[in-house]
Amino acid sequence: MVGINPGMKLDAVSATLGVNPHGYYLDVNNGKKIVVYKYKHRYHKVLKIEVPTEHGLAGGSPRFRKPSNAYFVFDQYSGKLEGYITDLGRKSGEDLLMEESYLRLFLNNPGKMRKLKSGSAKSKSALRSSLKKKAGKVKRSKSQSSSKDKLKANRTPKGASAKSKKKDASSRSSAKLQNSEKVSTISFGSGLSFFITPSSWDNYETTKMPVINSMYDISLNNVVSLGVGLSYQRASGTYDYTYSYEDPWTGFEDITEEVTVSRSKLNLRLRTNFHYGRKEKLDMYSGFGLGLSLDRFNHTSSDPYYLEDASPNYPITLQIIPIGMQYYLTEKSGVHVELGLIGPYVVAFGLTFKL
User: Fold this and answer.
1) Domains and CATH numbers, the chain
2) pLDDT tens digits, residue range 75-102?
3) What ranges in the chain are assigned the alpha helix state H?
4) 216-247: per-residue pLDDT in tens?
5) Strand partners, 205
6) How far, rounded to the nearest angstrom, does the alpha carbon of residue 344 sit from its chain's CA centroid?
7) Taking a C-beta distance cutoff of 8 angstroms, is the pair 234, 262 a contact?
8) Number of neighbouring beta carbons within 10 Å of residue 224
9) Residues 19-51 as b or e (16 or more Cβ within 10 Å = b)
10) Per the confidence metrics, is the pTM higher than 0.85?
Protein backbone atom coordinates (compact mmCIF):
# COMPACT_ATOMS: atom_id res chain seq x y z
CA MET A 1 0.00 0.00 0.00
CA VAL A 2 3.04 2.28 -0.04
CA GLY A 3 2.08 3.37 -3.56
CA ILE A 4 -1.29 4.75 -2.43
CA ASN A 5 -1.51 8.54 -2.13
CA PRO A 6 -4.35 10.94 -1.29
CA GLY A 7 -6.08 12.36 -4.35
CA MET A 8 -5.99 9.11 -6.33
CA LYS A 9 -9.16 7.91 -8.06
CA LEU A 10 -10.79 4.52 -7.43
CA ASP A 11 -9.45 2.96 -10.65
CA ALA A 12 -5.90 4.05 -9.82
CA VAL A 13 -6.16 2.58 -6.30
CA SER A 14 -7.45 -0.75 -7.64
CA ALA A 15 -4.68 -0.84 -10.26
CA THR A 16 -2.01 -0.12 -7.64
CA LEU A 17 -3.33 -2.77 -5.25
CA GLY A 18 -3.90 -5.25 -8.07
CA VAL A 19 -7.34 -6.33 -6.76
CA ASN A 20 -10.96 -5.26 -7.20
CA PRO A 21 -13.06 -3.82 -4.33
CA HIS A 22 -14.87 -6.31 -2.12
CA GLY A 23 -17.66 -3.91 -1.15
CA TYR A 24 -18.46 -0.34 -0.22
CA TYR A 25 -20.47 1.84 2.19
CA LEU A 26 -21.95 5.30 1.73
CA ASP A 27 -21.94 8.09 4.32
CA VAL A 28 -24.57 10.28 2.66
CA ASN A 29 -24.55 12.89 5.43
CA ASN A 30 -20.83 13.61 5.07
CA GLY A 31 -20.52 12.89 1.34
CA LYS A 32 -18.08 9.99 1.74
CA LYS A 33 -17.76 6.63 0.00
CA ILE A 34 -15.88 3.86 1.85
CA VAL A 35 -14.49 1.12 -0.40
CA VAL A 36 -13.43 -2.18 1.23
CA TYR A 37 -10.55 -4.29 -0.08
CA LYS A 38 -9.57 -7.76 1.14
CA TYR A 39 -5.92 -8.61 1.76
CA LYS A 40 -3.71 -11.14 3.61
CA HIS A 41 -0.61 -10.64 5.73
CA ARG A 42 2.69 -11.77 4.25
CA TYR A 43 5.07 -14.11 6.12
CA HIS A 44 8.09 -16.14 5.15
CA LYS A 45 8.63 -19.78 5.99
CA VAL A 46 12.09 -20.93 7.15
CA LEU A 47 13.51 -23.92 8.97
CA LYS A 48 13.38 -23.77 12.76
CA ILE A 49 17.17 -23.80 13.06
CA GLU A 50 17.35 -20.77 10.72
CA VAL A 51 15.08 -18.57 12.87
CA PRO A 52 17.90 -16.92 14.90
CA THR A 53 20.13 -16.50 11.81
CA GLU A 54 20.33 -13.67 9.27
CA HIS A 55 18.76 -15.94 6.64
CA GLY A 56 15.81 -16.45 8.96
CA LEU A 57 15.03 -12.73 8.83
CA ALA A 58 14.92 -12.29 5.05
CA GLY A 59 15.03 -15.75 3.46
CA GLY A 60 12.56 -18.56 3.07
CA SER A 61 9.46 -18.83 0.89
CA PRO A 62 6.60 -16.31 1.13
CA ARG A 63 3.30 -17.28 2.74
CA PHE A 64 0.01 -15.35 3.08
CA ARG A 65 -2.57 -15.80 5.83
CA LYS A 66 -4.95 -13.98 8.21
CA PRO A 67 -7.44 -12.31 5.79
CA SER A 68 -8.09 -8.67 6.75
CA ASN A 69 -9.89 -5.59 5.46
CA ALA A 70 -8.59 -2.23 4.29
CA TYR A 71 -10.98 0.73 4.23
CA PHE A 72 -10.40 3.52 1.67
CA VAL A 73 -12.35 6.77 2.11
CA PHE A 74 -13.25 8.68 -1.09
CA ASP A 75 -15.09 11.94 -1.56
CA GLN A 76 -18.26 10.85 -3.38
CA TYR A 77 -18.48 14.05 -5.43
CA SER A 78 -14.88 14.43 -6.65
CA GLY A 79 -14.09 10.70 -6.44
CA LYS A 80 -10.67 11.43 -4.88
CA LEU A 81 -9.07 9.39 -2.08
CA GLU A 82 -8.88 11.15 1.28
CA GLY A 83 -7.34 8.40 3.41
CA TYR A 84 -7.39 4.73 4.38
CA ILE A 85 -7.00 2.45 7.37
CA THR A 86 -6.62 -1.32 7.87
CA ASP A 87 -8.07 -3.69 10.46
CA LEU A 88 -4.68 -3.82 12.16
CA GLY A 89 -4.54 -0.03 12.21
CA ARG A 90 -7.99 0.16 13.77
CA LYS A 91 -7.04 -2.43 16.39
CA SER A 92 -3.84 -0.71 17.44
CA GLY A 93 -5.31 2.76 17.00
CA GLU A 94 -7.09 2.65 20.37
CA ASP A 95 -3.81 2.13 22.26
CA LEU A 96 -2.15 4.92 20.30
CA LEU A 97 -5.03 7.28 21.04
CA MET A 98 -4.81 6.35 24.75
CA GLU A 99 -1.11 7.19 24.75
CA GLU A 100 -1.88 10.48 23.01
CA SER A 101 -4.54 11.29 25.63
CA TYR A 102 -2.10 10.44 28.45
CA LEU A 103 0.53 12.80 27.01
CA ARG A 104 -2.01 15.61 26.68
CA LEU A 105 -3.19 15.14 30.28
CA PHE A 106 0.42 14.88 31.49
CA LEU A 107 1.35 18.16 29.81
CA ASN A 108 -1.67 19.88 31.39
CA ASN A 109 -1.12 18.48 34.92
CA PRO A 110 2.15 16.50 35.33
CA GLY A 111 1.90 16.20 39.14
CA LYS A 112 -1.58 14.68 39.10
CA MET A 113 -0.69 12.19 36.36
CA ARG A 114 2.45 10.98 38.24
CA LYS A 115 0.38 10.52 41.37
CA LEU A 116 -2.28 8.50 39.57
CA LYS A 117 0.24 6.35 37.73
CA SER A 118 2.17 5.52 40.92
CA GLY A 119 -0.96 5.09 43.06
CA SER A 120 -3.12 2.09 43.92
CA ALA A 121 -4.56 -0.41 41.46
CA LYS A 122 -7.91 1.35 41.77
CA SER A 123 -6.37 4.67 40.76
CA LYS A 124 -4.61 3.05 37.80
CA SER A 125 -7.85 1.44 36.74
CA ALA A 126 -9.63 4.80 36.94
CA LEU A 127 -6.83 6.40 34.90
CA ARG A 128 -7.04 3.74 32.21
CA SER A 129 -10.84 4.03 32.07
CA SER A 130 -10.58 7.81 31.70
CA LEU A 131 -7.98 7.52 28.95
CA LYS A 132 -10.01 4.87 27.15
CA LYS A 133 -13.10 7.09 27.29
CA LYS A 134 -11.19 10.04 25.86
CA ALA A 135 -9.64 7.85 23.17
CA GLY A 136 -13.08 6.55 22.29
CA LYS A 137 -14.33 10.11 21.76
CA VAL A 138 -11.42 10.88 19.44
CA LYS A 139 -11.94 7.60 17.64
CA ARG A 140 -15.62 8.32 17.06
CA SER A 141 -14.75 11.74 15.69
CA LYS A 142 -12.63 9.95 13.08
CA SER A 143 -15.36 7.47 12.23
CA GLN A 144 -14.79 7.63 8.45
CA SER A 145 -12.83 4.38 8.81
CA SER A 146 -15.66 2.52 10.57
CA SER A 147 -18.13 0.63 8.42
CA LYS A 148 -20.53 0.38 11.34
CA ASP A 149 -20.71 4.15 11.64
CA LYS A 150 -21.32 4.42 7.90
CA LEU A 151 -24.35 2.19 8.18
CA LYS A 152 -25.62 4.28 11.09
CA ALA A 153 -25.21 7.39 9.00
CA ASN A 154 -27.83 6.05 6.61
CA ARG A 155 -30.44 5.61 9.38
CA THR A 156 -32.53 8.43 10.79
CA PRO A 157 -31.97 8.76 14.57
CA LYS A 158 -34.81 7.60 16.76
CA GLY A 159 -37.15 10.43 17.69
CA ALA A 160 -35.98 12.71 14.86
CA SER A 161 -38.44 15.32 13.71
CA ALA A 162 -40.31 15.09 10.40
CA LYS A 163 -38.10 17.86 9.08
CA SER A 164 -34.91 15.89 9.88
CA LYS A 165 -36.30 12.76 8.25
CA LYS A 166 -37.18 14.70 5.13
CA LYS A 167 -33.68 16.19 5.04
CA ASP A 168 -32.06 12.74 5.41
CA ALA A 169 -34.26 11.34 2.63
CA SER A 170 -33.24 14.26 0.41
CA SER A 171 -29.55 13.56 1.17
CA ARG A 172 -29.96 9.87 0.30
CA SER A 173 -31.66 10.71 -2.99
CA SER A 174 -28.94 13.23 -3.82
CA ALA A 175 -26.17 10.70 -3.04
CA LYS A 176 -27.95 8.09 -5.16
CA LEU A 177 -28.07 10.54 -8.07
CA GLN A 178 -24.42 11.52 -7.70
CA ASN A 179 -23.22 7.90 -7.60
CA SER A 180 -25.52 6.50 -10.24
CA GLU A 181 -23.90 4.97 -13.28
CA LYS A 182 -25.38 4.46 -16.74
CA VAL A 183 -28.69 6.17 -15.99
CA SER A 184 -30.59 6.61 -19.26
CA THR A 185 -33.22 9.23 -20.10
CA ILE A 186 -35.53 9.83 -23.04
CA SER A 187 -36.99 13.23 -23.88
CA PHE A 188 -39.75 14.49 -26.16
CA GLY A 189 -40.69 18.05 -26.92
CA SER A 190 -40.74 21.01 -29.24
CA GLY A 191 -38.55 23.97 -29.99
CA LEU A 192 -37.93 27.19 -31.90
CA SER A 193 -35.43 27.81 -34.66
CA PHE A 194 -34.27 30.30 -37.28
CA PHE A 195 -35.79 28.17 -40.02
CA ILE A 196 -35.08 30.27 -43.10
CA THR A 197 -37.35 30.33 -46.15
CA PRO A 198 -36.35 31.88 -49.50
CA SER A 199 -37.03 35.59 -50.00
CA SER A 200 -39.23 34.70 -52.99
CA TRP A 201 -41.72 33.30 -50.47
CA ASP A 202 -42.47 36.76 -49.06
CA ASN A 203 -45.66 37.03 -51.08
CA TYR A 204 -46.71 33.42 -50.47
CA GLU A 205 -49.27 32.17 -48.03
CA THR A 206 -46.84 30.37 -45.74
CA THR A 207 -47.14 28.02 -42.80
CA LYS A 208 -44.29 26.98 -40.50
CA MET A 209 -44.36 24.28 -37.83
CA PRO A 210 -42.16 24.30 -34.70
CA VAL A 211 -39.26 21.91 -34.30
CA ILE A 212 -40.22 18.45 -33.08
CA ASN A 213 -37.48 16.86 -30.94
CA SER A 214 -36.69 13.51 -29.38
CA MET A 215 -33.49 12.68 -27.51
CA TYR A 216 -31.98 9.67 -25.77
CA ASP A 217 -29.02 10.01 -23.38
CA ILE A 218 -27.11 7.57 -21.19
CA SER A 219 -24.62 8.68 -18.52
CA LEU A 220 -21.17 7.09 -18.56
CA ASN A 221 -20.42 8.50 -15.09
CA ASN A 222 -21.44 11.45 -12.93
CA VAL A 223 -20.05 13.98 -15.42
CA VAL A 224 -20.26 12.70 -19.01
CA SER A 225 -23.25 11.39 -20.97
CA LEU A 226 -23.62 10.26 -24.57
CA GLY A 227 -26.77 10.23 -26.63
CA VAL A 228 -28.57 10.69 -29.92
CA GLY A 229 -31.02 13.37 -30.99
CA LEU A 230 -33.63 13.55 -33.77
CA SER A 231 -35.30 16.79 -34.92
CA TYR A 232 -37.79 17.61 -37.68
CA GLN A 233 -39.26 20.87 -39.02
CA ARG A 234 -41.25 21.83 -42.09
CA ALA A 235 -42.38 25.07 -43.77
CA SER A 236 -44.45 25.55 -46.91
CA GLY A 237 -45.69 28.37 -49.13
CA THR A 238 -48.60 28.37 -51.62
CA TYR A 239 -49.24 30.69 -54.55
CA ASP A 240 -51.38 30.78 -57.72
CA TYR A 241 -49.58 30.59 -61.04
CA THR A 242 -51.50 31.79 -64.13
CA TYR A 243 -50.40 31.25 -67.69
CA SER A 244 -52.03 31.24 -71.17
CA TYR A 245 -52.64 28.06 -73.09
CA GLU A 246 -53.43 28.06 -76.84
CA ASP A 247 -56.05 25.51 -77.75
CA PRO A 248 -56.28 24.69 -81.49
CA TRP A 249 -60.09 24.83 -81.35
CA THR A 250 -60.93 27.49 -78.79
CA GLY A 251 -57.89 29.74 -78.98
CA PHE A 252 -56.00 31.15 -76.00
CA GLU A 253 -57.18 30.18 -72.54
CA ASP A 254 -55.89 31.37 -69.16
CA ILE A 255 -55.06 28.53 -66.77
CA THR A 256 -54.42 29.05 -63.07
CA GLU A 257 -52.74 26.35 -61.01
CA GLU A 258 -51.90 26.23 -57.34
CA VAL A 259 -48.21 25.66 -56.68
CA THR A 260 -46.88 24.61 -53.28
CA VAL A 261 -43.23 25.07 -52.39
CA SER A 262 -42.05 23.37 -49.20
CA ARG A 263 -38.86 22.94 -47.23
CA SER A 264 -38.32 20.19 -44.67
CA LYS A 265 -35.31 19.42 -42.49
CA LEU A 266 -34.62 16.14 -40.68
CA ASN A 267 -31.58 16.20 -38.39
CA LEU A 268 -29.97 13.13 -36.79
CA ARG A 269 -27.00 13.75 -34.51
CA LEU A 270 -24.82 12.26 -31.81
CA ARG A 271 -24.58 14.36 -28.65
CA THR A 272 -22.19 14.58 -25.71
CA ASN A 273 -23.10 16.46 -22.53
CA PHE A 274 -21.01 17.45 -19.52
CA HIS A 275 -23.05 17.61 -16.30
CA TYR A 276 -22.46 19.96 -13.37
CA GLY A 277 -24.53 21.12 -10.44
CA ARG A 278 -26.39 17.83 -10.14
CA LYS A 279 -28.77 17.85 -7.19
CA GLU A 280 -31.74 15.85 -5.99
CA LYS A 281 -34.12 17.09 -8.68
CA LEU A 282 -32.00 19.40 -10.83
CA ASP A 283 -29.47 18.37 -13.49
CA MET A 284 -27.60 21.08 -15.41
CA TYR A 285 -25.32 20.44 -18.35
CA SER A 286 -23.55 21.81 -21.43
CA GLY A 287 -22.42 19.94 -24.52
CA PHE A 288 -22.28 19.62 -28.27
CA GLY A 289 -23.62 17.44 -31.08
CA LEU A 290 -22.51 16.40 -34.56
CA GLY A 291 -24.76 14.87 -37.18
CA LEU A 292 -26.32 14.88 -40.61
CA SER A 293 -29.28 16.90 -41.91
CA LEU A 294 -31.62 15.97 -44.75
CA ASP A 295 -32.55 19.41 -46.08
CA ARG A 296 -35.15 19.07 -48.84
CA PHE A 297 -36.93 21.60 -51.10
CA ASN A 298 -40.03 20.37 -52.92
CA HIS A 299 -42.38 21.85 -55.56
CA THR A 300 -45.84 20.46 -56.29
CA SER A 301 -48.75 21.71 -58.37
CA SER A 302 -52.45 21.12 -58.91
CA ASP A 303 -51.67 20.67 -62.61
CA PRO A 304 -51.64 16.90 -63.24
CA TYR A 305 -48.99 17.39 -65.94
CA TYR A 306 -46.63 19.30 -63.64
CA LEU A 307 -43.38 17.45 -62.93
CA GLU A 308 -42.57 17.40 -59.23
CA ASP A 309 -39.20 18.91 -58.41
CA ALA A 310 -37.27 17.90 -55.29
CA SER A 311 -33.79 19.13 -54.36
CA PRO A 312 -32.37 17.24 -51.36
CA ASN A 313 -29.23 18.31 -49.56
CA TYR A 314 -27.23 16.45 -46.88
CA PRO A 315 -25.00 18.89 -44.96
CA ILE A 316 -23.05 17.91 -41.85
CA THR A 317 -24.26 20.03 -38.94
CA LEU A 318 -22.69 20.97 -35.62
CA GLN A 319 -24.73 21.86 -32.57
CA ILE A 320 -23.45 23.60 -29.44
CA ILE A 321 -25.45 23.48 -26.21
CA PRO A 322 -24.21 26.34 -23.96
CA ILE A 323 -26.60 25.38 -21.18
CA GLY A 324 -29.34 22.82 -20.57
CA MET A 325 -31.41 21.84 -17.57
CA GLN A 326 -33.58 18.91 -16.46
CA TYR A 327 -35.89 19.28 -13.47
CA TYR A 328 -37.61 16.17 -12.10
CA LEU A 329 -41.13 16.59 -10.75
CA THR A 330 -41.21 12.93 -9.66
CA GLU A 331 -38.56 10.23 -9.29
CA LYS A 332 -38.91 9.17 -12.94
CA SER A 333 -40.35 12.13 -14.86
CA GLY A 334 -39.65 15.80 -15.28
CA VAL A 335 -39.21 18.68 -17.74
CA HIS A 336 -36.24 19.93 -19.71
CA VAL A 337 -35.11 23.09 -21.49
CA GLU A 338 -31.89 23.74 -23.37
CA LEU A 339 -30.39 26.45 -25.56
CA GLY A 340 -28.74 25.57 -28.86
CA LEU A 341 -26.37 27.29 -31.27
CA ILE A 342 -25.92 26.51 -34.99
CA GLY A 343 -27.97 23.30 -34.79
CA PRO A 344 -31.62 22.48 -35.49
CA TYR A 345 -33.03 24.78 -32.76
CA VAL A 346 -32.16 27.76 -30.61
CA VAL A 347 -34.31 26.64 -27.70
CA ALA A 348 -35.93 23.28 -26.96
CA PHE A 349 -38.29 22.24 -24.19
CA GLY A 350 -40.44 19.27 -23.27
CA LEU A 351 -40.77 16.21 -21.04
CA THR A 352 -38.00 13.92 -19.78
CA PHE A 353 -38.34 10.37 -18.44
CA LYS A 354 -35.82 8.12 -16.66
CA LEU A 355 -35.72 4.57 -18.01
Assistant:
1) 10-150 (no CATH), 180-354 (2.40.160.20)
2) 988 889 998 888 777 777 667 777 777 7
3) 10-17, 54-58, 87-108, 110-117, 121-141, 147-153, 162-179
4) 999 998 899 999 999 998 888 887 777 676 66
5) 238
6) 27
7) yes
8) 13
9) eeeeebbbbbeebbbbbebebeeeeeebeeeee
10) no
